[in-house]
Amino acid sequence: MWTTKTFLTKTKRGNVLKIVREHYLRDDLLCGSAACNFCPHKDDELVLEANPESLCGLFDSNHYLILDTNVVLHQIDVIEEDALKNVIILQTVLEEVKHQNTAIFQRLLEVIGNKKRKFFSFVNEHHKDTYVERNPGEKQNDRNDRAIRKAASWYASHLSIKNIDGQFPQIVLLTDDEKNRQLAHDEGILTCTVSDYIKNVNGYPGLSDKLSKNVIPESCSKDALYPAHLTPTQIHAGIRNGKLHQGTFHASRDNYLEGNATISGCEKSILLQGHIGINRAIDGDIVAIEILPQEEWSKPSDIVLEDKTEDPGDFLEEESQLLTISKADDDITPTGKVVGIIRRKWRQYCGILLPSKFPGATRHLFTPAEKRIPRVRIETRQSDILASQRILVALDSWPRNSRYPLGHFVRSLGPIGDKDAENEVILLEHDVPHARFSEAVLACLPPDNWTIPEEELARRVDLRATCVCSVDPPGCTDIDDALHARRAAAGYEVGVHIADVTHFVRPHSALDREAAARATTVYLVDKRIDMVPELLSSNLCSLRGGEERLAFSCIWILDENAHVLSTKFHKSVIKSRAAMTYEEAQMAIDETSRNDEIATSLRLLNKLAKKLKQRRLDNGALLLASPEIRFQVDSETHEPLDVQAKRIVDTNSMVEEFMLLANVSVAERIAADYPQSALLRRHPAPPPAHFNAFLKAASRQGFELDVSTNKSFSKSLNEAVIPERPFFNTLLRIMATRCMQQAVYFSSGSKTQEEFYHYGLACPIYTHFTSPIRRYADVVVHRLLAGSVGADATHAALLDTRAAQALCDNLNYRHRHAQLAARASVALNTHILFKNREEVESAVVLAVKRNALQVLIPKYGLEGPLYLPSDKFTYNEEENVQICNDIVFKTFDELTVRLTLDSSNLQHRKLVFQLVTPFIPGVSYVQQTKDDQMEVENVEIKTDEKKRKDLPETKNKKKKKSKT
């Protein structure tokens, strides 16, 4: 049988459109219960047990659970626990959850898919006995609640059919909606709140810790600390009339009372300060902002400020002194306040528990590992156990009368300081997908002993006889690229050969979807989180020496001055002669006695690369720098043994130049053939305001840098040299890097041709083609190029501009978080390395803050704050210097620091930089010489002797000796 469903929707012009659809109902849908004597089940269709054990003390009889939508949305952490079994998930609930939160929907599907959990999905919306029509004037939510109650009633009566002895499972409806519970009770349905049910479950200690805390309505003003948020209707009206603005809130890492929001149409971000200005926004939230009158605008605080370690209670401290709000110069920033939350971007957060000082207390503070996230109040009876663990906590709500948000415990990650637990924290905190590849993904892989089929060889250009080699960092196993160069009739033939990952990763497969979701390989110091399974990343796709591999080749003919005369692209098969490190390749070039084919090819590549690089620099490309470091890691324990700044040789630049040339060549081709959907990469020019502090610091050193164009900036950087300070120019480039904006992926149809420009590389168009093993962007570019040259079919998804932009958004997000995860891994291993170690090294001042100097140690590439006591130093805001008597600290100054690790705060272990020279009494650390140590040891020996002489036993012995 069938019925009709009617929908009312509004068109873009505001007209109301009535949609009527046929809705089919059936009477042969199975209930899934082994206790049923009516439905014609097959064995594999019996999900629910015939005699489900009751673990809840509130219900003596065996029972099945039915959950309403809000229970699933708010209590998914409880639902994922094994304590809940034999649960019926209705189609009504599934559809609502999918509509409201896709992440929770996916988690629910995983639970349903776990056969041990006994979760049964019942299609109540298509069963003739459980489907309910929406009544005139009835809200959709009320209709859905009625549908859930109808299904619960049907199950209760259905299971009783043909059960003569009356022994069949009862139905218990879990809902926190008081009205729904009362209606269910009136209809004879057993019902219970989630909290009451979970707190009475036996055999699962700690389960109640995972209960989500109820949200207190904004209208509740009792003991309110924060202003009430505007309603969605008020926010929408305010944005429409221009009084409010929508933006994404970004909390400061250095000052917990400060943040900013980026809004469209405003060149500068909007500054938000203080508890009231931030008004319970959490990093990543999409918020409604009211911009303050211009006379109330301020500038970002230049003080480093962390929240206090102890729970201050529910009150907000005086903020004026903490923020040091200043309006002294031209850096005044548009300032606003958060008046509403449009969408929360909360996730699960890693951190540690700060147990209450009151014995037996159940309310405790949780401190997140991410400094931009406020501390969270949670309830647990396991504080004694959890205090030594890294734990995961989810946020539930942030009432107006609570200084901190409320949350609940999710799970433990492992002991604090344990390497595996700390790596897990890094991956979770940076939202890095790192679960094992699913069976569906692994099923897409070829066999381990796969070899290139003859028919595939016939379709490709055979380059196995060409002298191709790869040049990579030491220990690299995911080799994406290889090169060759040889003389040609019209100049030089140069080839870049890139692993043909798309031969194995086919569109819309489970492997493709997983690679798209991960978007990039993430490199930690001691491990790698692959974008594709290891069989591909380190074997079949990796261009290893001496093995035949599938490739996508870009071949140029270059003249003597490295100008491109012609370009061609084709799928190929290659056999690399050697997989070399940068140092090995450099040795082959420099060793004059070597004249083999590999050395000759490398020298030719190196010669042409230098000409390519010079032409790029002449065009305005920027040579920037960053303090990159490399760890020496123990091969067995994976513990860091030493750290040093990365050494760069000519072959680094050689490989880079040809990868850049390949990326530019491919970008030009795909943009020409796919003008609306080519995946490209752009680097916007930094706003002039980004350079203010940098230019002031350079000016104090006597250099007036011209940043009007990238070409003039590059020229200025080249000329800013202090002969007696060789590291100065590198330092200048490191600081220049921090003025830049992030390069981003975009779809060609979403930007104008002028916006394609890549500022850092000074090229009008650019993409990523050369690393498809570790970047999904390159996989998409390979597919576009293959379609362009006729090497593969062009599938429809490649031409979908909306899908292309959504893909770019995910790529940018994952790329950024992969970078942050890599930096966090470096910090973790640095802390491990310096655990029982101290160093005194030369350092350079990168920035001057109100209460600290940001310093860099060139030897290690490490940086951090060197805090200055306010009673000794005076901060000159106008000159941006710190003064102590006749000593003045300014940017670029050289000094000596002592480097140690402070482990007193288990959550945030940190490197401590302590001033050594210039020497300031009461501030600088005094190094002990060997003579000083010997003198101290002698003093200690004499003191010990004196103590022994003063002991009663010794005195008595002396007296006895004198008598005899």
TrEMBL record:
Cellular compartments annotated = Nucleus
- Identify the InterPro entries for this entry: Dis3_CSD2, NA-bd_OB-fold, PIN-like_dom_sf, PIN_dom, RNase_II/R, RNase_II/R_CS, RNR_Ribonuclease, Rrp44_CSD1
GO molecular function per UniProt: exonuclease activity
Limits of the RNB domain: 460-791
Q: Give the main location.
A: nucleus
Write out the biased-composition intervals (Basic and acidic residues).
938-955
UniProt keyword terms in alphabetical order: Exonuclease, Hydrolase, Nuclease, Nucleus, RNA-binding, rRNA processing
Q: Which domain of life is it from?
A: Eukaryota
Q: Which residues are in the PIN domain?
A: 63-182
Q: Where is this region: Disordered?
A: 938-964
Q: Which Pfam families match?
A: OB_Dis3, PIN_4, RNB, Rrp44_CSD1
Transmembrane stretches, by residue range?
Answer: none
- Family under the similarity heading: Belongs to the RNR ribonuclease family.
- What is this protein identified as? Exosome complex exonuclease RRP44
